[in-house]
Amino acid sequence: MKIAIFGGSFDPPHKGHIAIVKRALEELDIDYVIIVPTYLNPFKTSFQASPSLRLRWLRKIFLPYNRVKICDYEVRKGRPTYAIETVEFLRRKYAPKKLYYIIGSDNLPTLHKWHKYQKLSHLVQFVVATRKGYKVPKKYKMIEVHEDISSTELRIHPKKRYLPPIVAEEIIRFYRS
Length: 177
What we know:
It catalyses: nicotinate beta-D-ribonucleotide + ATP + H(+) = deamido-NAD(+) + diphosphate. The chain is of the alpha/beta class.
């Protein structure tokens, strides 16, 4: 089995995340994309939408995708979880022949600061989803995504056109309340 892990806060999930998943399924030789929402990103101090709410939104959004799995491992941990922990868990669970880890290009400047980065880089092949304003070095496999959407911006100004229709109204109500 070959899998790609796509971790993130998804606070909120948006059409850019869907575009990344679709491109990964099209361009990578994989059986599944496993989406792993964080409980709390180790580089952040808080979240707005609760982990269980973000998990529920992701399950609704990706229900029609038979090659996408939503993994609640980090949410169940109830604490910030390092990528290396999740990778080791998923390696034990699936024993993949190939393991990709999808990140946004905005993560590249701090990737070397990830917990046990050297070990992690030997266990996975990083795949970088492009984002406006960030260059991707040639050493990385790249997924071109032409969505200029920011979860940070959507928390402040939720806009329906950037949100998955199945959860758009719910997300807008949540962030406007």
